[in-house]
Design goal:
The protein is α/β, with parallel strands linked by helices and 351 residues long. It is built from 15 helices and ten strands. An eight-stranded parallel β-barrel has the order 1-2-3-4-5-6-8-9, surrounded by six helices. The protein binds ligand G3I.
Amino acid sequence: MRPCTLATAALFAAALATALPAGAVDSLRNLAQSAGIRFGTAVNVEALNTDAAYARLLAREFNLVTPENALKFSVVQPERGRFDFTQADALVAFAEAHRMQVNGHVLVWDQQLPDWLTQGHFSPDELKAILHEHIRTLVTRYRGRVASWDVAAEAVGEDGKPRETFWSRGIGPDYLALAFRWAHEADPRARLRYNDYGGEGAGAKSDGIYTLVADLRVHRVPIDAVGLQMHVGLNDAPRPEDVRLNMKRLAALGLETDVTEMDVMLQLPADRADLKAQAGLYRAMLQACLAVPLCRSFSTWGATDHYSWIPEFFPGRGAALLFDMDGHPKPAYYSVRRLLRRAAESSPAIE
Ligand code: G3I
């Protein structure tokens, strides 16, 4: 917990209660902020533009947003040299209107790449030029407006060894260092992150990610943070204590951490016991983040079950998020809010 006296906490809570409209005080974003972290989610921009209730829920509960797909290579550069920022611009504008921080996602990834790129048979030098131009264009455009970037994602295999990707095959193993350097050149003030799944706690992949980012740091590559995605189910989640210890060892490298994409998929139809267990997992992972000073944010991968990616990719599974199909809070929401309220009362952010 972040240090603070009870008297200051009481004064801060009282000030907060008068400063914000009624009902907003107890939102996830306000409680999280006074607990010293940001609370975020991935945004479906099409829904943002068409579903007013969804937009209101985002504005009320979250102060950190990540475009679920709007800044991915195939969306933002569908043809070589033709960039389409329509969706991303809409999200950044919405975020700025609602005092939300934006995390750019994702500059170098092995998925959602356009055919002109994957089927272009480019030489290593040509591919370097294409990736450099892509990163320079995106990061420059949002300089000062996108506070952090997932520069690279999912480059480590389950065995902890570097994963062979389109980029590693096409450019070589130094593509990651190049990507971070190019992003830093384009916006020296942006917070640059490596983001991955399946390595949140202990194990070979976690050790592989640690080794990767430690090596980047040793070679003075500008990396600031590691994102722990936390896509889990009830029976395959990492031990929260292992997550806390992993965050601490990354902090010892000087790296911040974030829980970046949490969802807890359930077998449908979900029953009360499942929803209670889900609430316990969200609470435990949030607790791990709150216990580590350099854990800066906690995000879910989607706000409501209605817009979750899970049912499309895992038929028969779903109900993975804090709000249900109709946007109503679930037990996990209340569990997380209770923990944030307790943390807020004992250690408001001194900013
Ligand atoms: O936009 C097109 C649409 O025009 C087309 O008609 C339709 C049917 O083909 O596809 C639409 O694109 C889909 C896109 O989501 C937008 O809905 C892609 O096919 C689909 O593959 C894509 O899925 C995304 C997935 O990443 C891609 O692997 C999910 O929405 C997104 O939630 C998911 O997010 C990833 C993070 O970026 C990285 N971490 C893991 C996480 C879950 O896989």
